[in-house]
Amino acid sequence: MRAQQRTAIVTDEYSNLIIAGAGSGKTLTILGKVQVFE
After folding, report:
1. Angle ∠(14,19,28) on CA atoms, nearest 5
2. How many CB atoms lie within 10 A of CB 5?
3. Residue pair 9/32 in contact by the 8 Å Cβ criterion
4. In 1-38, where does DSSP find H-type helix?
5. Number of domains present in the structure of the chain
6. Given pLDDT bands bounded at 50, 70 and 90, which one contains residue 21?
7. Gyration radius from the chain CA atoms
8. Which positions fall inside the UvrD-like helicase ATP-binding domain (predicted)?
């Protein structure tokens, strides 16, 4: 996981806009965010 993905996961904001190309880890980032909230 890249630093930008970690930042998106641990950011304490209500919503995040993730814009990236295919295969860049968008789903992994969103799933990481869900795990943090559980």
Report:
1. 75
2. 19
3. yes
4. 3-10, 26-37
5. 1
6. very high
7. 9
8. 2-34
Cα–Cα distance for residue pair 20/29, rounded to 1 Å: 11
* 20 burial via Cβ count (<10 Å: 0-12, 13-18, 19+): exposed
User: 0.85 cut: is pTM over it?
Assistant: no
CB 1 within 8 A of CB 25: yes
d(CA 36, CA 33): 5
Q: Are the C-beta atoms of 10 and 35 separated by less than 8 Å?
A: no
Grouping H, G, I as helix, E, B as strand and the rest as coil, residue 25 is coil
Instruction: Give dist(CA 19, CA 36) in Å, integer.
Output: 20
What residue numbers bound the domain in which 15 lies?
3-37
